[in-house]
Design brief:
The protein has helices spanning about 5-15, 15-20, 50-55, 85-90, 90-100, 125-135, 150-155, 170-190, 215-220, 240, 245-255, 270-275, 295-300, 310-320, 335-345, 345-355, 355-365, 365-380, 385-390; strands spanning about 35-40, 60-70, 80-85, 105-110, 140-145, 190-195, 205-210, 230-235, 260-265, 280-285, 305, 325-330. By secondary structure, the protein is an alpha/beta fold. Keywords: Glycosyltransferase, Transferase.
């Protein structure tokens, strides 16, 4: 009944039911003035939508912006434009004005296979895509992780997969989500980008679009491994990161005096650079087979990063960049021996960590992402003339040799 009322009445009379008032409704995303106008929306996970937009804007003639549909628990990431999820879900005024704005973009990258136009097309992503294509907008997808990673496939591929735990309540939810999103990608056969190479197993035609980190923000300039190794683990999701699998090893080594171990949760993003600068070793994840933004930030800080990378992921990164990522390999069974070896041979591992800042600057900076996006935005065959492509070593047509 509330949704059948005019917005002006419903917002005044039922703000508690709707979850917003008239004052909460922002204007639509501002359309930039370039010949090529890109919108990236609506997820902005880890601020990557904003960072990719900034990277795309370094290409000739391209202006890009991002939009985040902000959940009730706002993570506080920077964004060009934001709209509360309650407004996107209920406000016809916002949805209609947003659709008018979106039709003025030349390109749209849809993040995480989520609708970007609120209730304009009933929250139906398929209808949104058809409408944008009919309006002459070039549409692509960018997947971040759980939106596309199929748990059943991952569990079959890796004994360390978090999806091997049948009692984990999110497994069924994520299976249904990834399966449906995979069907959407197959139906439309549009360009697909993925933020981590492992997702190419779920979308074989996809291209790796590296996450971006501001290397200067994370630079620590503090020597490491000059005493007992100081080891940090800051899991955003302990199940995914494999925290329970590695904790016994870490606590045992700490009790023996081999390492100083610290586990932290809920630290504000603004404090993380200082936290990384205070340790020697950062433990990322041991279940998914990738390195995450945590690893990239720690590499930029010159810390020694330990994670479990699938062989196919490591090979893909080496093929795309020409370098082996400076991430030391370990799984829950080998972590004990690795940490003991680090304590015994600190200078050897400090040399690995010293490669991190340069690796991040070359392959997780704006130039690398711009090189990947160039063909989508400016047409195929342009990467050869691209300064970002030459400087980063990445190109839009990079594919793994063993993606399937």
């Amino acid at each position: 009944m509330v949704l059948a009322l005019p917005d002006t009445i419903a917002e005044r009379a039922f703000p508690t039911v709707l979850g917003y008032s008239r004052e909460d409704v922002p204007p639509p995303v501002a359309v930039p003035g370039g010949d090529v106008r890109l919108l990236i929306a609506p997820a902005n996970y880890a601020e990557q939508g904003l960072q990719w937009a900034r990277a795309a804007s370094t290409l000739p003639g391209v202006d890009a912006v991002n939009l985040q549909i902000v959940p009730a628990r706002n993570p506080g990431f920077g964004t060009d434009a934001a709209v509360p999820s309650s407004v996107a879900a209920h406000s016809r005024r916002w949805s209609d004005s947003q659709w008018t704005a979106v039709r003025s973009f030349t390109h749209v990258l849809i993040e995480a296979e989520r609708p970007i136009l609120g209730r304009r097309f009933g929250g139906d992503l398929r209808r949104e895509i058809h409408a944008m294509l009919d309006a002459g907008v070039r549409v692509g997808f960018v997947s971040h992780g759980s939106d596309l990673r199929l748990p059943s496939r991952h569990a079959d591929d890796s004994p360390w997969s978090p999806f091997t735990e049948p009692e984990w309540p999110l497994r069924t939810v994520l299976e249904d989500l990834a399966a449906e999103n995979g069907r959407i990608l197959d139906e439309f056969d549009l360009p697909v980008f993925v933020s981590t190479p492992d997702l190419i197993a779920d979308a074989p035609s996809a291209t790796w679009l590296p996450n971006i980190v501001d290397a200067a923000r994370w630079a620590a300039g503090i020597p490491i491994l000059e005493g007992r190794p100081r080891v940090l683990h800051a899991p955003t999701n302990p199940v995914i990161k494999g925290t329970a699998l590695i904790e016994p090893t870490l606590l045992r080594l700490q009790a023996e005096g081999t390492i100083d171990y610290r586990e932290v949760h809920g630290v504000p993003a603004s404090m993380m650079p200082g936290l990384y600068g205070s340790v020697d070793v950062v433990l990322d994840q041991f279940r998914l087979g990738i390195y995450s933004t945590t690893s990239i930030e720690a590499m930029a800080a010159g810390r020694l990063v330990i994670a479990r990378l699938d062989d196919s992921v490591r090979r893909h990164i080496a093929d795309a960049t020409g370098e082996d990522p400076p991430v030391v390999q370990a799984d829950p069974d080998t972590l004990d021996g690795l940490l003991r070896d680090i304590a015994a041979r600190p200078s050897d591992y400090a040399a690995i960590a010293a490669r991190g800042p340069g690796f991040v600057q070359r392959f997780h900076g704006p130039a690398a992402a711009a090189a990947v996006l160039r063909d989508f935005l400016l047409g195929p065959g342009t990467a050869a003339d691209s300064e970002p492509a030459r400087s980063s070593g990445l190109g839009a047509n990079e594919r793994p040799h063993d993606a399937r």
